[in-house]
Design a protein that fits this description.
InterPro entries (chains A, B, C, D, E): YneE/VCCN1/2-like (IPR044669)
Largest interface: A-B, 57 and 65 residues
Keywords (chains A, B, C, D, E): Cell membrane, Ion transport, Membrane, Transmembrane, Transmembrane helix, Transport
Protein name (chains A, B, C, D, E): Bestrophin family protein
Number of domains of chain A: 1
Number of helices of chain A: 11
Radius of gyration of chain A: 27 Å
Number of strands of chain A: 0
Oligomer: homopentamer
Structural class of chain A: mainly alpha
Family (chains A, B, C, D, E): Belongs to the anion channel-forming bestrophin (TC 1.A.46) family.
Membrane topology (chains A, B, C, D, E): Multi-pass membrane protein
Distance between the termini of chain A: 7 Å
Helix content of chain A: over 70%
Chain lengths: 303, 303, 303, 303, 303
Amino acid sequence: MLVKQKLPLSYLFNMIKVDVVRVFFFSITFNIFKFFFSDYLPSMPAQLPTVLGTAISLVLAFKLNHSYDRWWEARKIWGSIVNDSRTLILQLKTYIQTDVLGYDETGKFIQKMANRQIGWCYALGESLRGLDNQATIHQYLIPAEAGYVLPQNNKPYAILALHMRDFKELLNKQALNPFQQVQLDSTVSRLVGYMGMAERINSTVFPVTYRVFVHFFIYLFLIILSLGLVETLGPLEIPILIVIASTFFLIEKTATYLQDPFVNMPTDTPVTAIARTIEINIKQLLEEPDVPEPITPEDFYLK
Amino acid sequence: MLVKQKLPLSYLFNMIKVDVVRVFFFSITFNIFKFFFSDYLPSMPAQLPTVLGTAISLVLAFKLNHSYDRWWEARKIWGSIVNDSRTLILQLKTYIQTDVLGYDETGKFIQKMANRQIGWCYALGESLRGLDNQATIHQYLIPAEAGYVLPQNNKPYAILALHMRDFKELLNKQALNPFQQVQLDSTVSRLVGYMGMAERINSTVFPVTYRVFVHFFIYLFLIILSLGLVETLGPLEIPILIVIASTFFLIEKTATYLQDPFVNMPTDTPVTAIARTIEINIKQLLEEPDVPEPITPEDFYLK
Amino acid sequence: MLVKQKLPLSYLFNMIKVDVVRVFFFSITFNIFKFFFSDYLPSMPAQLPTVLGTAISLVLAFKLNHSYDRWWEARKIWGSIVNDSRTLILQLKTYIQTDVLGYDETGKFIQKMANRQIGWCYALGESLRGLDNQATIHQYLIPAEAGYVLPQNNKPYAILALHMRDFKELLNKQALNPFQQVQLDSTVSRLVGYMGMAERINSTVFPVTYRVFVHFFIYLFLIILSLGLVETLGPLEIPILIVIASTFFLIEKTATYLQDPFVNMPTDTPVTAIARTIEINIKQLLEEPDVPEPITPEDFYLK
Amino acid sequence: MLVKQKLPLSYLFNMIKVDVVRVFFFSITFNIFKFFFSDYLPSMPAQLPTVLGTAISLVLAFKLNHSYDRWWEARKIWGSIVNDSRTLILQLKTYIQTDVLGYDETGKFIQKMANRQIGWCYALGESLRGLDNQATIHQYLIPAEAGYVLPQNNKPYAILALHMRDFKELLNKQALNPFQQVQLDSTVSRLVGYMGMAERINSTVFPVTYRVFVHFFIYLFLIILSLGLVETLGPLEIPILIVIASTFFLIEKTATYLQDPFVNMPTDTPVTAIARTIEINIKQLLEEPDVPEPITPEDFYLK
Amino acid sequence: MLVKQKLPLSYLFNMIKVDVVRVFFFSITFNIFKFFFSDYLPSMPAQLPTVLGTAISLVLAFKLNHSYDRWWEARKIWGSIVNDSRTLILQLKTYIQTDVLGYDETGKFIQKMANRQIGWCYALGESLRGLDNQATIHQYLIPAEAGYVLPQNNKPYAILALHMRDFKELLNKQALNPFQQVQLDSTVSRLVGYMGMAERINSTVFPVTYRVFVHFFIYLFLIILSLGLVETLGPLEIPILIVIASTFFLIEKTATYLQDPFVNMPTDTPVTAIARTIEINIKQLLEEPDVPEPITPEDFYLK
């Protein structure tokens, strides 16, 4: 997630440089044409850029809206992961009958599950971003469990299966009553759901034909605008066109970047920082000693 | 679902060729008219195309929005099918008391239900697309159950009835406690719901009068724009009009294709690939040997 | 619901004929005026129709959006009715302990409840459309129950009360366990909810002042456009204005018709066809002999 | 809620008369200025009203959208109140074991609770509208309970506390099983929720800076439009400007009125009529004798 | 939250003064340029400001929409906090078996939990606004509990952990039955959820690139409009441009302020006033003596 303070101009410029250079070249070409063949150029009627400008603004607004919705949904999903991770630990602390396992064992057990839940958050973030999550799984899961999880394609799903297996054991030992097991099961089912929702956003390509015609449409608009401006403004048309083009391309790229919030880029949903928040909250609640520091933005974004 | 990399231009062109050819002919006609009867043609006032352009852009934006919403809802429904299929298997693994049926029998039972659930996903996708799902049912269901399902119109519904019947049996044998049965029942009820939601999108025609007037409106706009441009631009009007028309028709067709996500076309929700993902996840979780490969896009789309 | 194939032009024309005739008369009037009193007519500035055109397009887009939302919500409600009717029957089949009532009695009991549920769907559709539902109630309910339902204003609500009464009886006879009764109760509560949601759409008038000013605004726009066009286009203004007017009125009427989806018109939500689908699904699931045919569109719409 | 049939023009006129009179005066002033100081007036460039017209149309569309959403949400909340009031009575009828309290006592008890629920609906409507609800509470609650409710600020909340207290008593007497008590509790929790949702809409002011600049913006637009029209149209500008202004102000006022649906005005959500519907449904279901008539619109609105 | 009555103009002016001063300077500069170098200035074509005006209006509308959605979601979250705080107290009053703890002890216990819940509301509001909540925690929690809560980063989460711990104790003492404990747990889980949702809005920066280009785009539009107006209007261009600029900047700032509803500014969600309402409702329901007064707006906003 980009943060407010330190966004470098170079970042913005890099987003649009290829397109701006193209615009620069065709507007220069039109100027040269005008200079040499002024008489042969048709005069572009004024209503054309107006009509196309309205249309392109609307389709860009549409793209921006739905891209924002994907981005915001991704953030909401991770917000829900925060909530249900916290809830899960509260429920474990409340539900498990200490006298069944003994006070110390219960504490260790909850700690094991808390670590696993924290590991799940980090591992899910890494999975979504296409990163390797082997190290994470070794860090937060005990070896036996890591051995079950690692061979599977969908490692976060396998981690949740371990949660469920432990609930079964607790129920069988009567450390949980049946209501509580069902309640914990509901919490884990919701986590299964969030995982699937994040995967859905990740694997669903924004309609491709749409992406194509928006890009094409912006160029069409700029070319016709350029032809219209070159007559009245002459060479002054070049900087004006470039400034206008930059704005439209910035909107387009902003939208495109918002569409895919789990691709390991600065505009990503900050899944690592969120997982860290969960780790801090849970460890403090359990009064564990090794509470890490929150992740703060290095440079201009939070990873 | 169209994928990012390899969209062929011919695909885009095929979407709009009929309309573009029509535009080509009427813009040529106007040019010939202008050439021979220049004096008799009224001059089209400039504000007309502007007004119509704004209006058509707004109604297209409306169509695009609601078509996108249908498409995204369809994808969400299938995302939920992923989630609750995974949840169902987790619940079965956790809930069933191994000592009632014996360890091996329980394993076989879960495997039977997992196969049936996987079969349900494939069969639902085929039903929605109007394809025959007999082969799928024979592959994933045991013969006795296939015999119950095949004569029915709504085969996926019948498959879920088999799930429910099995839960009843498990409850009667006390391999499930009553809470767990109710919880499993809730999961299956949600699957009934997703099935109905997908059917709803499939069977509800996007308002027809709307479809008619949008198409009619685009032509009206292009004709008036053509009459306006022919005077200032002459023959150059033909290519410009065709490029503009292509953009508007591309928007219209993109929207129309998004409206119906279960019609066995490249723009479909990739139900087969999703069902395959479910199959892989479930089989790996149950540590079964015959895990298939994920479906990858052949050509330019994922089926 | 209008279907794709056979929409007659006469239907579209009937929607807008009154308004189009009015437009025809005032545009003729302006032409005559211009012919005789050309010098006295003020020339309408070009920006006026543009400004009004943008404004009217936006308010029409607003109206279209919210009308579509009402229509789509109505369809979703009926989709949910499909889902929970199917769920209810699945639950009854799964829950009821056959040994309490005996195998045959249980079958008959479920059949009675299934019929009542089917009857509820038809009766609700008829209620919403303001039709008499006496025949339906006599057909699907046993006489004693019909006697309870018929005197009430809200017959569908009374039918659901019969469901609930039967669940109580089953619980008292221990043919249901308490969890299952609560689960069935939740399903019926949802049906109560859908009924109320459909009634809400039916009884809530779309803001009336809004309806008034949209209609007024379209006329204002057309009159000013007409005054603007009459100078440049002369009599040719009449057909052009009529074509433009038709498009705007078509949008307005389409929106108005979508607003009220339960008024026994061709644009209605196809509640009878949906109820029939439910009947077919349920009866096939229970392997009953008298399964009816699905309703197919007669003419150009599905009722 | 305004109804379709009889909306008087005077009502519409009263909404906007102050603003229209102001517009009348400044457009007359501009005409007089033009008559005497024609040479000194600058000519307003044509693109200014176009740009401002687009901008004001978009911000009005925004205001209309979100006002409509508030209004529709208010209506949905009251729809949910209908649904859960009906559900509550169904549940009470189904759940309470008749043999614990005796048949007659049970009947009387349900009747008492039904009256209290009906009273809650009326009282909540009155609370939201800032009306006194003492009479209502005396009418529908028994004196002892009215004594508990009346001193409190939030009377509807206190009424629901009485419901909950009665459930506790029923549970203690074993007239309810624990599942049923929890289910009833969920229904009442939802009612607590709807009450809070309606209060939220009532107490949250639509962003004030927004209201200010929309109003200011419309005047700015009309003044600039007036200056533009006065040159070409002369005195004819006055009626045209007034008609256009009326339309814009009508949109603005319609939106403003929709924003606050519980302020005892004709555009309110018809809470009294809805409460009456609930009363009729519940009393007919319980086969009580004193069923009142539905409320029909007097004049042009339903209160 | 700004209130309707007393919004001072100075507040509005302060929002936009920096930007307006900038606009003042560049429009003066253009006027001076025009005066001295009139012949060298290119004439800005009329369609440019129109096209840019439409585009900037659409992106502003987009920003306004999503900012409003954040603001409204924040208000909804706090509405839900009201609802579930009320529900929690109702449930405690209904569920706890008085005979287990004794009548007086039960009363004291509920009072302690009610105070803690009220404290949670105040403390959450303070946390979100980045204020110190030590005083609040000392006021509403008993010392032993304050000692557990204060060292933690996320104090509201720790307070909810105390709720859960008490439920466990009540269950163990059989003052709650297992159903009721699960129901209370669900209520607290929802509170955990609302807390996380408010934190999500607080910690998620509205897309930064978007913020940058909107600001840049408004300046671009105003500069080009200024260059266009300076030719026809001369020095009169300065006040007109400033008025138009003020409107656009007011829209932009209104949107920016709505985006962040928990930053201790006048446009905040009124979390302190809402927490006070909860305090009043709960204390009156429990018939406690020390009910405070509602918070009324001092100046022009409710804090």
